[in-house]
Design brief:
This protein has about 200 residues and is of the alpha+beta class. It is built from 2 helices and 8 strands. A hairpin with a 2-residue loop joins strand 6 and strand 7.
Length: about 200
């Protein structure tokens, strides 16, 4: 029941005036089901905790940051049996709003936009996995229902075969052994044998 190891190689990228992306790595071997990030201003005025479970993500975008402000962050891994120790404290400073969109670059070259596209692809990949799993379950259920119908049909046809002869006899056309047989009896002359 050991706690997972602390995240390593924590770094801050895509630094902007009001956002930044934190990324980290997790040592091999332990099952990690989420992460927890503590974000604090250096002046101590504001502290925020971000916690996500049921994710294999190794990065997180921090929003609503203030421009030209120093922050300290720490990351923890969440495992099946609790949280890891906090990572080393990482310090970063947000940019000025004037630095946000340099005149010589377009939105396409903006690393934050690229980061968001990457996150969107990850979500699309996760959606594809979910859809495939749901389709597989639907196929299994459909196959089960089909097999169940075949078994049910076999059972009902077996019981119909047992009932069939009596139901045929009870129909008007086949009354008293069927039409052919009754006609045949009428056309054969009866022979009376008289013993002397």
């Amino acid at each position: 029941m050991n706690r997972p190891p602390a995240p390593v190689n924590v770094s801050v990228m895509h630094l902007r005036a009001d956002s930044a992306t934190v990324s980290w790595e997790v040592p091999e071997g332990d099952i990690i089901i989420g992460f927890s990030i503590s974000q604090q201003r250096m002046d101590g005025k504001m502290q925020r905790f971000i916690r996500e479970v049921n994710t294999t993500s190794r990065s997180c975008v921090l929003w609503d940051l203030e421009e030209e402000t120093d922050y300290i962050i720490q990351v923890q891994s969440i495992g099946l049996y609790g949280e890891s120790q906090a990572s080393k404290r990482i310090h970063f400073r947000t940019l000025k709003k004037t630095d946000r969109f340099p005149s010589n670059s377009s939105n396409q070259d903006d690393p934050t936009v690229q980061g968001l596209d990457k996150a969107r692809h990850l979500q699309t990949g996760e959606m594809i996995i979910i859809v495939v799993v749901l389709l597989m379950w639907a196929a299994v259920i459909a196959l089960f229902c089909r097999q169940y119908d075949i078994i049910k049909d076999n059972d009902s046809s077996n019981s119909k075969e047992k009932v069939k002869p009596s139901s045929e006899r009870s129909t008007p056309e086949h009354h008293s052994g069927g039409l052919l047989r009754s006609k045949f009896h009428q056309s054969v002359p009866s022979i009376n044998i008289i013993e002397v």
